[in-house]
Amino acid sequence: EIDGAEDITVEGIAFEATTGLGLKISSSNNVHINNCYFRNIGNTAIDILDSKNVQVSNCTIHDTGDGGINVAAGDRKTLTPANISIYNNHIYNVAKWVRCYQPPIKISDVGISATHNLIHDCPHTAILFTGNDITIEYNEIYSVVMETGDAGAIYTGRDYTFRGNRVCYNYVHHLGGIGMGTMGIYNDDCVSGTYMEGNVFHEVSRAIFLGGGRDFVVKNNVFIDCYPSIRIDGRGASNHNVWRNMVFNIMKNRFYEIGGDRSPYIEKYPELAVIDEFYKQGRPIPPKAVVRNNAYCSERKLELAWDSEKGEILSKSNYACGKDDFEDFKTRDFRLKADSEAFNYGFENVDFHRIGLVEKDRMVNPPKVTSHMEVDVNTNALLLLLNNRSDNEVRGKIIFHINKHVEGFSGTSVDIDLAAHEVKEYRVALPPVHEKVQIEARCDVAGVRPCRTEYAQGDIPR
């Protein structure tokens, strides 16, 4: 535990085999945790409370009973930032004991960033944030929300005063989700003001969800096989008792308790004056969003749901592209080609290869293997293409998960052996299938990315 200390560096240490926290930092200043290893931790790996100028960088965290990194720092009353950075960490297989609301990264209060992290394989949310002036950028997130529904890979909700938050340049793909399903960036229950630019979503349901809030910007994102890409509702303007109670009791109390109508909030976030006026007049609060310069490679694009017609939704200069617009769809190079018409609609290319871990800063890096799967309808075989972008050999087992039992295929697996920078195709025989099924390939090696396809005999799957 680091308590009431300053100018501390912890580097190159392994924390493991404890029933409690891995490391607790409280009421401290200028602390750096670098290139450390946390595994088999009973509770949370790293807990940071009421501290400032703290950086957790280049760490590996896995197999914790609770979450990965938990931060509550900065002063929301005065909007004083904590200046805490969660940078370049590999976090997976957390929440082994408490399955929900123990995410790999949990951020609360003011002036905190989570950048260039690789997060995967957990039962619930990947990044949960509440507060102000929070930056979530250049993270890769996949195989999260694997056991829960009505949850998001990145989640925030239920406060009109959460402002100054940026969720940009993240790669979110192949999520789980049961029951009510999952979202990529989940702006729940009238939370407002999130700025979302340059994110890339692949096979995500409701990739960006705007649940009734205002002052959103959704700009220059890429949506690939999402269902839908963006969904907006107007629950803040609904007359249903559930939403009226939420807006005019819970959220109204939070708005005035934190001082959303006065300094420093009203100067820093002048759009809060509109919320104040709605409350003074006792009027329902409609949604408001700008959706522009996005590239849709999805059949389902922008969908407006209940009571959204009462709001101000500006959709402008978006472009519907095809898979041929990308540099290399099968090897997951999702930069758009220079001749794509998307650029005529104001789209600016996302620096896709900048997303994720900065390997040169880390002592140990996981493999980086992308995958693509399709069906050869002529031979009734499953084709799995693996591209090893790592400098080292990768060996492991790919297990094929299917959403319905298929005799002779359910539980099928294949051993993989990839040399450094090798691209290899694996072929797996398929039995006759007379109804549409979804097949997902997942590996037992952290860093081998999953992929999916849909198939029914006689169909040409996407």
Description:
The chain is mainly β and 462 residues long. Among the domains are: 1-142 and 355-366, no CATH class; 367-455, Immunoglobulin-like (Sandwich). It has three helices and 42 strands. The strands form six sheets. An eleven-stranded parallel sheet has the order 1-4-7-10-13-16-19-22-25-28-31, with no helix packed on it. The radius of gyration is 23 Å and the shape is globular. The termini are far apart. The relative contact order is 0.08.
Features:
11-stranded parallel beta sheet, 462 residues, mainly beta, single chain, Immunoglobulin-like, 42 strands, 7% helix
Which helices and strands, and how do they pair?
Elements: E1 2-3, E2 6-11, E3 14-18, E4 23-26, E5 29-34, E6 37-41, E7 46-49, E8 52-57, E9 60-64, E10 69-73, E11 84-87, E12 90-92, E13 105-110, E14 112-115, E15 118-120, E16 127-132, E17 135-137, E18 140-142, E19 151-157, E20 166-168, E21 171-173, E22 182-188, E23 195-197, E24 200-202, E25 208-211, E26 216-219, E27 222-224, E28 230-233, H1 241-258, H2 265-268, H3 272-281, E29 288-292, E30 295-297, E31 302-304, E32 312-316, E33 319-320, E34 326-328, E35 333-336, E36 369-376, E37 381-388, E38 394-402, E39 413-418, E40 423-429, E41 437-443, E42 451-455
Parallel strand pairs: 1-4, 2-5, 3-6, 4-7, 5-8, 6-9, 7-10, 8-11, 9-12, 10-13, 11-14, 12-15, 13-16, 14-17, 15-18, 16-19, 17-20, 18-21, 19-22, 20-23, 21-24, 22-25, 23-26, 24-27, 25-28, 26-29, 27-30, 28-31, 29-32, 30-33
Antiparallel strand pairs: 34-35, 36-37, 37-40, 38-39, 38-41, 41-42
